[in-house]
Amino acid sequence: LGSSSSVPFTSIFSQLFMTVVVPLIIGQIVRRYIKDWLERKKPPFGAISSCVLLMIIYTTFCDTFANPNIDLDKFSLIIVVFIIFSVQMSFMFLTFLFSTRNNSTFTPADTVAIIFCSTHKSLTLGIPMLKIVFAGYEHLSLISVPLLIYHPAQILLGSLLVPTIKSWMISRQKALKLTRQPKAPVKV
């Protein structure tokens, strides 16, 4: 295209390492020493992580839509939402097809885990990565819009599909148990 740019890979990887990997390693080391205390006290880590995730989403939404440089009309936003829902549904359908093939060794429970885990993308990792990779870019807010839509879309689609997938899994498990039961010998 006749244009070029330089990407500071070492700077990006060192920032990502310090932002994502180092806290994970420190958490694993600290957990080893306070594991017994954690099991006794049972702090509400689920609620804490939900609150932190909610704050990340909130601040990202605020940063995105408070930016005066964002030029996103309603039609474009609707198209992005439609594309993201379509992509999410396609990924979930493809993972279902691949994990339920005839030669697949996955159990129905494995298939459910594959459907949800393989298509999961989190704001907690995506937003820091975007902020590091596109630091100083004036249209960072615009770039973060698909991720801001994808994360709630996966939660919404997942919650809508849970009853259907659960009934499929239960019926499939029952069918597998019936086909695997040894047949009793017939007395003549």
TrEMBL record:
| Taxonomic superkingdom | Eukaryota
Keyword Transmembrane helix set for record = yes
Instruction: Provide the transmembrane region boundaries.
Output: 12-33, 45-66, 78-99, 111-134, 140-162
What InterPro entries would the database entry show?
Na+/solute_symporter_sf, Put_Na-Bile_cotransptr
Q: Which family does it belong to?
A: Belongs to the bile acid:sodium symporter (BASS) (TC 2.A.28) family.
What Gene3D superfamilies does the database record attribute to this sequence? 1.20.1530.20
Question: Which GO cellular component terms, listed alphabetically, does the Swiss-Prot or TrEMBL entry include?
Answer: plasma membrane
Keyword tags:
Membrane, Transmembrane, Transmembrane helix
What is the protein's given name?
Sodium/bile acid cotransporter 7
